[in-house]
Amino acid sequence: MGTFRAFVLRQTGGRFSAAFEDLPQDSLPPGDVLIRVTHSSLNYKDGLAVTGKPGVVRTFPMVPGIDLAGTVVESSSPAFTAGQSVVVTGCGTSETIWGGYAQMARMKAEHVVPLPEGLTMVRAMGVGTAGFTAMQSVMALEAHGLKPGGKPVVVTGAAGGVGSVAIAILAKLGYTVVASTGRAEEAGYLKSLGAAEIIGREVLSGPGKPLDPERWAGAVDSVGGDTLAGILRTLAIGSSVASCGLAGGPKLNTTVFPFILRGVNLLGIDSVRASNATRRAIWQRISADLPIDKLDSATHTAPLSRIQELGEQILAGKTRGRTVIDVNA
Q1: Which residues of the chain have a pLDDT value below 50?
Q2: Model-level pTM greater than 0.85?
Q3: The CATH number of 3-115+298-326 is which of 3.30.420.40, 3.90.180.10, 3.40.630.30, 3.90.700.10?
Q4: Are the C-beta atoms of residues 252 and 275 closer than 8 Å to each other?
């Protein structure tokens, strides 16, 4: 039985360590589907994990990387066959399940999805958990009545992975999209994705009244904190915000007025516990409604050998769009 290269996190005596190791294949955790991994991606949670920040990894040793794409080597599940191209996104990977920063992975069948038609493995990882979460957010807003043609939809953390994909999807679907960002230099990039207007993050995160003028038909928020509070007090009557991140902090200081006087909805987006049927439905929408040219323009590829450096960059807000990780480089 051969070995495979993996980026392994360990904790010994309370001390964190991270290093590349050659592991025997039988060291992989149990599962139904053995996958030869070709690509992974970089998400905010990956940045936390690979730099040793608390809050993500719950068991050690851990192979991080919450996304992976590759080819099935063998499967004990009738749902998958050897040679099939598959995708896994954030299902507890990098928390309690070994993830994609390795050349091999073994997963439960319930977490694996066939590679969607029309997507390569690189493009699927260009989507990754961030893009999956963006589409899940859009679908939640639609389920609560969002339709094109009304007030704008605001997307926060716009230059990040979730924000970039959300803008591209919403613009293609016919919405007027306003991008909220703290990086004014990214205005050209955001407009190329389909944003009609760019606003500074302080517009939403600054102080306000319990209710401010109605401005948004909906929102995709990956920031949380004061930004989410600002969205809630400026949502139109009966509209919703999909809350899917906390880059700006986990605390929410708001009032009940948006809920009882405007009937707005705060929609929590949990991509980790999505069922396999839900995952397949979200990927189907991604393959239909995410413009490939916009995805390509928002994606670049980097080697796994740079993962700690890249982790520091995403935590510092210095990345743009989506970073695909070549696990063999």
Answers
A1: none
A2: yes
A3: 3.90.180.10
A4: no
